[in-house]
Design brief:
alpha/beta, 3 domains, 9 strands, Rossmann fold, 6 helices
Length: about 220
């Protein structure tokens, strides 16, 4: 049973599973003359050797891979001319602001991204404007502003976009994007759980204070 799908370029792709052949060997995806839409092809049940294929989209996705002659998915990520700004709210407490510097250093070491700058939305330096200019001086053509915030509140909707747009005015030709905040990312479950366990270990005398509350004495049973 064959299926056809239309690519964005307008070409029509004919998906023909060979008889009595495992899917791993069915890599030829010839181009046909007519066909249905990609959505219709994906919804149509596929059968290989008389057996329903487990995923109705997997065969189409396989034919779009570069090794099978398709255009494949485009890879997105940080490029050589990108600068990254990680921005938090900013605090009057110096120790809190310094923690952002430590996180940025940790982030840079972990990811290998060459240009990562800290910034505070208010109350402390460097500002978003300062960090933006620092990125541009290092030759970037795109600035990626990442809010170090948990949920998309007013600061993400209004304040950070406004401050970033103001900073960008001084650097025509440099584009920028503001990414989403941390949000409901499942890895945050592990982070929160790890923090809870560490604090419980501390109050039971089995661990030192963590870097967040060291010297404050606040992590204790009341």
């Amino acid at each position: 049973m064959s299926s056809t799908c239309v690519l964005r370029s307008g070409a029509t792709m004919l998906v023909v599973p060979p008889p009595r052949q495992p899917f791993a060997q069915a890599k030829s995806c010839p181009v046909g003359e007519t066909g249905t839409s990609l959505g219709a092809a994906a919804r149509r049940p596929l059968r290989l050797g008389g057996v329903p294929f487990r995923s109705r989209n997997a065969l189409v996705r396989s034919c779009l891979k570069p090794e099978n002659g398709g255009f494949g998915p485009k890879s997105f990520g940080i490029g050589e001319r990108d600068g990254l700004i990680i921005v938090d709210h900013g605090s009057r407490r110096r120790e809190s602001n310094l923690m952002l510097n430590e996180f940025v250093a940790m982030f840079r070491d972990k990811t290998g991204y060459p240009i990562v700058e800290p910034a505070h939305m208010e109350l402390a330096e460097p500002s978003i404007k300062d960090a933006f200019s620092s990125c541009v001086r290092r030759g970037v053509t795109r600035v990626i502003v990442t809010p170090f915030f948990l949920f998309p509140g007013r600061h993400w909707h209004k304040d950070i976009p406004s401050l970033t747009a103001e900073a960008a005015k001084e650097h025509p030709g440099v584009s920028y994007i503001i990414t989403a905040p941390l949000g409901l990312h499942e890895l945050l479950v592990d982070v929160v759980n790890d923090r809870i366990k560490h604090c419980l270990s501390h109050v039971e005398g089995a661990a030192d204070e963590c870097e967040a509350c060291v010297g404050t004495g606040k992590c204790r049973i009341y």
